[in-house]
């Protein structure tokens, strides 16, 4: 795993406009950065990222099965009790899933360590599935990269195929896509998914989350008053559960992407549960619930993460010189609006540094198949939504 | 040869959102786009006005045509344009009927054809309506329940985009909106808002 400088394509901004990639610059800073790329060996990809991703995904499904069957755990995962049936029914009836992204700290040697699972609303999908694919193609075409250079990225192909499967499993329904207003990044991600769904022959519509309506029977509607019967929402389940229309969830006949059982995976309580069920697994970091901190005495530094949080918000490091947590010091690494549902603690495992950059690897799954990686860089230890996106190759 | 770890091929024409520089330089690409838009997955369908018409014009027999007609009626009830008043409905479609609290145009006929649904081919019988607003450019056009125009009325064979043959969502009356989005809105007011999303 190497970080290699390369000249950006002279016309990359025109290419971005041509393919509708509008959010390559965010907060006035570059988000897409093609002044460098990461280079992997095929062995690093297959042995250290692809295989462990599928294995961790299977382990995560075992956690879901365990949590679903246990009221105490449902409470620990902060699933509101009135939605337990909704979540359980979706798991028991085998509602199919579309995609997820596992975030790893990986140095290029040894096992990749799981930071978290973005199983409900992962973004940076367009950048990964299409845009970095085009970057490689263009650079091979202009002779800047060798012809045999490959990329771990079958995301678009697998997405389209998965949509074909999903239509087969969800016959006779049109698919509504939704995200919040005012976020170009989310709208871009959803547009890309719409393109993939249409490529698979699905009739697709779009409605903003805030514009969703309901009729007297509690069915959800779009702005044309069409009843929504199948919906992809780039909006977290934990938000929907707590909102006004949350009362109608489960009462109306809607198939959801991601399915409601994903609320258990896109939840930091997953991390201590994985460690409980698979202690010592090489790809896991030790992790604990707040009331299990007595088991964490051997760790000098723990990372404290809210049960629910997005894009690296509200992370802090808890340091202790001894096993006595009473004397601990807390260093806040990032602010944010999360944390009211409680926290979990994960053993400190800093991101590897390449030059001046801390590097995080996102490993994508389409359903249960590993489908590619994305790379984010930040000058700080925490990967935020403003962290730069860099492409990669396999050579 | 070892297999690729990446998507083997992407049709860039289908991913393009805006004309690129190459388009200006190579006019042949414009032709490709026009051709793509001109003939992207069209289907041949027959539009029949009645059960008798169906028996005459299609390969379906009497029983199959009756079943098709009933199915089209049900589709019309479920997916057809719905208006709050008879006047609004009649201004656009001429003949309308009341159903519950709505007014729906009378079906002019129904499409008979086959569609690919996932991996299966199945018959579909979508209702069609004749648009009769004399002030509209769509006067005397046939349209499907979502308002897609399929052509001038009076023919049997129509070429329609494959989307016209897909199942349409049910149409209803929305009584309230804005029941989702409040948590995101509350959190985005934290720190003065953000341009990033609610994904992660």
From TrEMBL, chain A:
Q: Tell me which UniProt keywords the record has, alphabetically.
A: ATP-binding, Ligase, Magnesium, Metal-binding, Nucleotide-binding
Signal peptide positions are none
The record places domain Glutathionylspermidine synthase pre-ATP-grasp-like at 12-394
According to the lineage, what is the superkingdom? Bacteria
Pfam families assigned to the protein according to its UniProt record, in alphabetical order: GSP_synth
Q: What is the name attached to this protein's record?
A: Glutathionylspermidine synthase family protein
Automatic annotation (TrEMBL), chain B:
Highest taxon of source: Bacteria
Which Pfam families does the record associate with it? DUF1190
Q: Could you identify this protein by its name?
A: DUF1190 domain-containing protein
């Amino acid at each position: 795993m190497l970080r290699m400088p390369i000249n950006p394509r002279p016309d990359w901004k025109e290419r971005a406009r041509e393919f509708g990639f509008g959010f390559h610059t965010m907060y006035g800073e570059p988000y897409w950065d093609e002044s460098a790329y990461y280079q992997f060996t095929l062995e690093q990809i297959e042995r250290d990222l692809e295989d462990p991703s599928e294995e961790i995904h299977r382990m995560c499904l075992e956690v879901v099965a365990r949590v679903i069957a246990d009221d105490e755990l449902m409470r620990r995962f902060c699933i509101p009790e009135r939605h337990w049936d909704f979540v359980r029914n979706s798991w028991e009836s085998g509602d199919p899933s579309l995609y997820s992204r596992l975030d790893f700290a990986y140095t290029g040697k040894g096992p990749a360590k799981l930071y978290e699972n973005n199983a409900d609303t992962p973004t940076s999908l367009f950048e990964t599935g299409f845009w970095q694919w085009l970057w490689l193609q263009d650079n091979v075409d202009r002779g800047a990269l060798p012809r045999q250079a490959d990329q771990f990225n079958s995301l678009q192909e697998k997405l389209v195929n998965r949509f074909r499967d999903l239509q087969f499993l969800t016959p006779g329904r049109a698919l509504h896509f939704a995200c919040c207003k005012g976020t170009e990044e989310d709208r871009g991600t959803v547009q890309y998914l719409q393109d993939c769904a249409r490529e698979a022959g699905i009739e697709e519509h779009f409605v903003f989350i805030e514009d969703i309506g309901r009729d007297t029977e509690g069915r959800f509607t779009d702005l044309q008053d069409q009843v929504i019967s199948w919906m992809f929402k780039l909006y977290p389940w934990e938000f929907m559960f707590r909102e006004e229309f949350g009362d109608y969830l489960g009462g109306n006949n809607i198939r959801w992407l991601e399915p409601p059982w994903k609320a258990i995976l896109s939840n930091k309580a997953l991390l201590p549960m994985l460690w409980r069920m698979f202690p010592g697994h090489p790809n896991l970091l030790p992790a604990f619930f707040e009331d299990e901190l007595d088991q964490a005495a051997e760790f000098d530094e723990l990372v404290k993460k809210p049960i629910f949080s997005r894009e690296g918000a509200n992370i802090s490091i808890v340091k202790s010189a001894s096993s006595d947590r009473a004397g601990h010091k807390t260093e806040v690494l990032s602010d944010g609006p999360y944390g009211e549902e409680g926290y979990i603690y994960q053993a400190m495992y800093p991101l590897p540094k390449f030059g001046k950059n801390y590097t995080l690897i996102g490993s994508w799954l389409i359903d249960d198949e590993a489908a590619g990686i994305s790379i984010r860089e930040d000058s700080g230890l925490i990967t935020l939504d403003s962290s730069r996106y860099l492409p990669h190759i396999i050579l | 040869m070892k297999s690729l770890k990446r998507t083997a091929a992407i049709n860039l024409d289908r991913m393009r959102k805006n004309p690129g520089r190459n388009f200006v330089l190579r006019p042949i690409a414009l032709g490709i786009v026009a051709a793509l838009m001109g003939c992207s997955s069209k289907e041949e369908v027959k539009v029949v006005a009645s059960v008798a018409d169906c028996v005459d014009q299609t390969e379906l027999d009497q029983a199959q045509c009756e079943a098709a007609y009933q199915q089209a009626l049900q589709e019309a009830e479920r997916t057809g344009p719905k208006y709050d008043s008879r006047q609004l409905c009649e201004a656009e479609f001429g003949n309308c009927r009341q159903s519950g609290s709505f007014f729906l145009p009378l079906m002019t006929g129904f499409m008979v054809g086959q569609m690919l649904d996932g991996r299966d081919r199945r018959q579909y019988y979508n209702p069609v309506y004749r648009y009769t607003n004399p002030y509209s450019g769509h006067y005397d056009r046939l349209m499907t329940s979502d308002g897609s125009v399929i052509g001038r009325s009076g023919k049997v064979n129509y070429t329609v985009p494959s989307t016209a043959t897909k199942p349409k969502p049910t149409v209803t009356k929305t009584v309230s909106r804005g029941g989702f989005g409040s948590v995101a809105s509350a959190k985005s007011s934290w720190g003065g808002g953000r341009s990033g999303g609610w994904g992660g």
